Amino acid sequence: MSITPSETAANDKQERLNRLVARVKGLPPIPVAVAYPCDKESLRGPLMAAAAGIIQPILVGPEAKIRALAEEFSLDLKGVRIVDVASSIDSANRAVQLVRENEAVALMKGSLHTDELMGAVVSRANEFRTKRRISHVFVMDVPTYPRPMLITDAAVNIAPTLEEKVDIAQNAIDLAHALGIAEPKVAILAAVETVNPKMPATLEAAALCKMADRGQIKGGILDGPLAFDNAVSPEAVRIKGIKSPVAGQADIFLVPNLEVGNVLFKQLEYLANALTAGIVLGAKAPVILTSRADSAETRTASCVIAALIAHANKKEK
Q1: Is 41 helix (H, G, I), strand (E, B) or coil?
Q2: From start to end of the chain, where are the E strands?
Q3: pLDDT in tens, 210-236
Q4: Are 140 and 2 in contact (CB under 8 A)?
Q5: pTM for this model (two decimals)
Q6: What average pLDDT does the segment 92-112 reach?
Q7: Residue 304: closest CA among 53, 33, 36, 37
Q8: How far is CA 235 from CA 229, 232, 247, 255, 315, in A?
């Protein structure tokens, strides 16, 4: 994922991953608590990110199982700290605790179920939440689009309310700033580009834009409702005569609900050869959240995003 737009987007996913990793070259690796890395890809991912100098993984899970897995797939655990915890749920809670104790600055999902990890993240007992709504962003490098695409929320909030969408938008804008996008353009997606009282997504899009005008959402330029073609295609914008500072050049795509976002990002990943990274925001530290089916490369890309956030947060303090 090339955070800096280029005139020609590479079709080779490995080349795009290399360009993304170059963004953190020279920066110190961040300590990351990895919850239950107990299959090949969930263990290879953080180790690959460690070899690239992105993170210092702390592997939290059953040590014997992790070591057996590493031996089976010839993965090097030399110098890697392992915190021996038996179950996946206990691993999630212990990983969260490591972040709260400042031994790690980010949390990473291993091979456990998402609800097990997120249960630990949102648990009142773990005191890991903030006043901000927790949301997920997919950061995608799509070969046919000249800038990164930040899609939110496609993994955590199923049917967010207008109030929740305010936090979802703000989380994504803050992430864009950490990625070096000074004034991200936010497209609030719907099926059409006009406000239709029979389509709630269009009403909420209009309300979000006015809230941004009033300073209730800061740091980005919002417009909506916008259909997806209007958000990405200058030609579609020209044909439809849309006048907008966002249309045709959006950075952030705020979807109406999780189902729309999930279908959108999977289409781009599987049919458009997109390089994908997944991150949860709104908690006390970034959470690297990928699918159990995701490759080590996707997990490595997600580690880069978490590292950029962690370094940006450090500068602000």
Answers
A1: helix
A2: 30-35, 55-61, 81-84, 106-109, 135-141, 149-152, 185-189, 221-226, 252-254, 275-281, 287-288
A3: 999 999 999 999 999 999 999 999 999
A4: no
A5: 0.92
A6: 96
A7: 53
A8: 9, 9, 10, 22, 39
Cα(119)–Cα(92) distance, integer angstroms: 8
CATH code assigned at 222: 3.40.718.10
Assess if residue 193 is contained within a domain.
yes
273: left (phi over 0), alpha (psi -120 to 50) or beta: left
Q: Residue 288 domain-assigned?
A: no
| Residue 177: domain span | 130-282
Which tokens is 26 given? 């020279």
Q: Is residue 17 part of a domain?
A: no
The answer to whether position 194 is within a domain reads yes
Q: What is the pLDDT of residues 118-170, one digit of tens each?
A: 999 999 999 999 999 999 999 999 999 999 999 999 999 999 999 999 999 99
- Mean pLDDT over the full length of the chain: 93
